Amino acid sequence: MIEISGVSKSFVLHNQGSAVIPVMQDAAMTVAPGECVALVGASGAGKSTLMRMIYGNYLANAGQIVVGDVDVAQAEPREILALRREVLGYVSQFLRVVPRVATIDVVAEPLLQVGVDGAAARARAEELLRRLNIPERLWSLSPTTFSGGEQQRVNIARGFAHSFPALLLDEPTASLDATNREVVLSLIEDAKARGAAIVGIFHDEAARERVCDREIDVTGFTPGMAA
Ligand SMILES: Nc1ncnc2c1ncn2[C@@H]1O[C@H](COP(=O)(O)OP(=O)(O)OP(=O)(O)O)[C@@H](O)[C@H]1O
């Protein structure tokens, strides 16, 4: 479902004499449907960089990043937007809050985007908000004023609303209480069971061990250290 090969990345620091910082060389990995792979490696090793290249936020300098039938490393912006709408979900720790949009609509929106009808989208959004312990009295309010933990849970509900065939998870359990952490782990297990291919960064080691099938140490892709 996700196939990466020969991927390299350097950053050019235009405001620092165009210094070139090579951060990744010849990265390769494959994630099958139903599998969850954890990216590991020391701070600064390149976990976030690889994740951002898969999502198409950073452009790879070389190689292939095939998600479904799209090579993100070569795709047009329009194709990447379609991929993000239909195929590739991304759950970060932080909600990008849209002012004045009710929480229920924030969560239902990804479903409406793929053509699910309003009532079904709302029902799925309600189910997720309930599961993530967001009190019903908050559903009609914008999450702008919610606590950090509430916003994180709204973001997770939104990220899991559509059954994406591929999912990127960036610290999805960070700063959650034990009950909600458990809910998120069960959402990840459900996604695997329906065949989602998942790549995640988890500093929560117990969470990683529970839901991930394999670990990939990105230190192996550091220039000069490639295996
Ligand atoms: N936009 C950028 N411009 C320049 N350098 C960058 C940029 N993004 C990342 N880097 C560099 O790439 C390297 C890898 O960073 P990255 O954030 O991917 O590491 P990480 O493994 O996710 O670290 P952490 O666990 O601390 O989040 C670092 O040396 C970082 O400084």
Cα(first) to Cα(last) distance is: 24 Å
CATH superfamily of the largest domain: P-loop containing nucleotide triphosphate hydrolases
Can you list the strand order of the major beta sheet? 6-7-8-3-9
CATH architecture of the largest domain: 3-Layer(aba) Sandwich
Task: Please supply descriptive tags for the structure shown above.
single chain; 227 residues; Rossmann fold; 2 domains; 5-stranded parallel sheet; 4-stranded antiparallel sheet; 7 helices; 9 strands; globular; binds adenosine-5'-triphosphate
Structure description:
By secondary structure, the protein is an alpha/beta fold. It has 2 domains: 1-87 and 164-227, P-loop containing nucleotide triphosphate hydrolases (Rossmann fold); 97-162. 36% of the residues lie in helices and 25% in strands. The protein is built from 7 helices and 9 strands, in the order βββαββαβαααβαβαβ. The protein has helices spanning 47-55, 77-86, 103-113, 118-131, 148-161, 178-193, 205-211, and strands at residues 2-13, 19-31, 36-40, 62-67, 70-71, 88-91, 166-170, 197-201, 214-217. The strands form 2 sheets. A 5-stranded parallel sheet has the order 6-7-8-3-9. α3 packs parallel to α5 (148-161). The protein is globular. It starts with a strand and ends in a 10-residue tail after the last strand. The model has no long low-confidence stretch (mean pLDDT 94). Bound molecules: adenosine-5'-triphosphate (ATP).
